[in-house]
């Protein structure tokens, strides 16, 4: 059995909208990271992804499945149990995602400054 996902795996102050690379959708890269150590159930994936709704998580997982990054497997048993796992294609994203995460860490202040500047421009235009 895998260790539980860390609820603090992603910094709540780190909006995924600042991610310089998108896989599937806003949550895709983070889902790939959550699945790096092996298959996970839907409820497990919600733990580190604070703020994601069940509907959005379902949609994101379907997008990753459609794009070939994730498989969805119904596990036989008395209770309905579904697990999500990375495909070989999905697993091949881990190394580039590690590089992007390292780059984002080095340029975090610049990314935040750019996001703040864009927000301020939007406020000025709206006036």
TrEMBL record:
<keyword id="KW-0805">Transcription regulation</keyword>
<dbReference type="InterPro" id="IPR036388">
    <property type="entry name" value="WH-like_DNA-bd_sf"/>
</dbReference>
<feature type="domain" description="HTH hxlR-type">
    <location>
        <begin position="14"/>
        <end position="112"/>
    </location>
</feature>
<dbReference type="InterPro" id="IPR002577">
    <property type="entry name" value="HTH_HxlR"/>
</dbReference>
<dbReference type="Pfam" id="PF01638">
    <property type="entry name" value="HxlR"/>
</dbReference>
<dbReference type="GO" id="GO:0003677">
    <property type="term" value="F:DNA binding"/>
</dbReference>
<keyword id="KW-0238">DNA-binding</keyword>
<protein>
    <submittedName>
        <fullName>Helix-turn-helix transcriptional regulator</fullName>
    </submittedName>
</protein>
<keyword id="KW-0804">Transcription</keyword>
<dbReference type="InterPro" id="IPR036390">
    <property type="entry name" value="WH_DNA-bd_sf"/>
</dbReference>
